[in-house]
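Chain A, query sequence.
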Amino acid sequence: MGWTINIDKAKELTKERLRQEREPLLQAQDIEFQKAQETESNTSSIVAEKQRLRDITKQVDTMTTLDELKAAKVENA
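Chain A, predicted structure.
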């Protein structure tokens, strides 16, 4: 009798790991956004980066193997 992996649980754990990894990056973008607003600078690139970071967990939904889940990471833009 071998081990079986609950892929749904593994996906949830991976999403939680990615959320933790992206948190400091989102916080940094929040600071940049505030600075840009104070100087009335264009914030579109900051908004786009924040959205990219939020969408990182969506990639997990299409993954089908444990190796894919292990390889998922938050990349700096």
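The longest helix spans residues 7-38. The chain has a mean pLDDT of 94.
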